[in-house]
Design brief:
Elements lengths: L2 H10 L2 H7 L8 H15 L6 H7 L1 H38 L2 H4 L1 H27 L8 H29 L3
Length: 170
């Protein structure tokens, strides 16, 4: 991925950063390596996409940034491992649920997608072919249904928290 950074990390003696960048820790979790590069870049005073070039141009500056970033990176690893374990546990629990309990998400997505496709394309083509005047669904209502689905699926806790705040309940 970033051979110059891996070599500098090995040279300066920051094993956690070296192992993360070499994908020995957090394998399959590219976000961890990206965040580590961001932390080192912040300590070096450059943008993350410029860190590799800085490692070639000014390796001493990057080495100093790596040494300064090592304690902060050491705190990130357990957080990422806990997140990964929680994600795997969620997937395992969802796989054990009956189909009807977990089918609402894909059915909702495909259903809304079909309703949008029906209203914007299929209905007009069908009206043109059969010379009918089937009315489309009001797009305002369709947008509200889509927003409701997205708030439940993508932000259910946010909607729940807002409702609790508005009603004064916890």
């Amino acid at each position: 991925m970033v051979p110059a950074l891996i070599a500098l990390a090995a040279q300066v003696g920051v094993p956690i950063i070296r192992d993360i960048l070499a994908r020995k820790i957090g394998e399959g979790n590219a976000q961890l390596a990206t965040d580590v590069i961001g932390v080192v870049a912040r300590h070096a005073g450059v943008a993350p996409d410029q860190l590799e070039q800085l490692a070639v141009d000014e390796p001493g500056k990057v080495m100093t940034a790596m040494v300064a970033a090592e304690p902060e990176v050491a705190e990130l690893v357990p957080l990422y491992m806990a997140e990964l374990a929680a994600r795997q546990e969620t997937y395992r629990m969802e796989a054990e649920d009956p189909l009807w309990a977990r089918a609402w998400r894909p059915l909702g997505m495909y259903g809304l997608g079909f309703i949008w496709l029906w209203n914007l394309v299929i209905l007009h083509v069908a009206n043109a072919i059969w010379k009918t005047a089937l009315p489309p669904t009001d797009l305002g209502i369709l947008l509200q249904l889509s927003a409701l689905y997205m708030s439940l699926y993508m932000g259910g806790h946010t909607a729940k928290d807002l409702m609790a705040k508005w009603t004064g309940r916890r």
